[in-house]
UniProtKB/TrEMBL annotation:
PANTHER family found in the cross-reference section: ABC TRANSPORTER PERMEASE (PTHR30450), D-METHIONINE TRANSPORT SYSTEM PERMEASE PROTEIN METI-RELATED (PTHR30450:SF1)
Topology term for the membrane: Multi-pass membrane protein
InterPro entries: AA_ABC_Transporter_Permease, MetI-like, MetI-like_sf
SUPFAM superfamilies associated with the record: MetI-like
Transmembrane segments: 65-87, 107-130
Protein's name in the database: ABC transporter permease subunit
GO CC terms: plasma membrane
Pfam families, sorted: BPD_transp_1 (PF00528)
Keyword terms, alphabetized: Cell membrane, Membrane, Transmembrane, Transmembrane helix, Transport
Domain of life: Bacteria
Record has Cell membrane as a keyword: yes
The keyword Transmembrane belongs to this UniProt entry's keyword annotation: yes
Length: 138
């Protein structure tokens, strides 16, 4: 009802976003909790403002935050493929409707391969960025 329809790809955006928000919040909380308490105390003792402490915490946890964004994107691809299988459109819908229900094994195979390749590209890019961030950190 928020976007004017209850079926299709547009209707799946709201539930996907709502399901991702607590997941992302918990991952980000874990990343920020990994920052050593001693670094926070040191930053405060040097006269830093609370905004500067937040900036330091974000910079210290940046590799972990990027890794968590990668995990979230991959999870959303999986969720969207499942939503597609339930009628929301996209690759999941293509795989089920044309590939499986029409007995077109080739379409099903290629849809699954595209999903896997997309996940691998996101994972490899995320790993590369995390590796670069960790290299520049030390």
């Amino acid at each position: 009802l928020l976007i004017g329809t209850s079926i299709g790809s547009s209707a799946s955006i709201i539930p996907l976003a709502i399901s991702a928000i607590p997941f992302v919040a918990k991952l980000f909380e874990n990343s920020l909790m990994e920052v050593e308490h001693g670094k926070i105390e040191t930053t405060l003792s040097l006269g830093a403002s609370h905004l500067e402490v937040i900036k330091m915490m974000l910079l210290e946890s940046l590799p972990s935050l990027v890794n968590n964004i990668t995990i979230t994107l991959i999870s959303l691809i999986g969720y969207s493929a499942m939503a597609g299988a339930l009628g929301a459109g996209g690759l999941g819908d293509l795989a089920i409707r044309i590939g499986y229900q029409s007995y077109r094994g080739d379409v099903l195979f290629y849809a699954v391969v595209v999903i896997i390749v997309l996940v691998q590209i996101i994972q490899s890019t995320g790993d590369y960025v995390v590796k670069r961030l960790r290299k520049h950190k030390y």
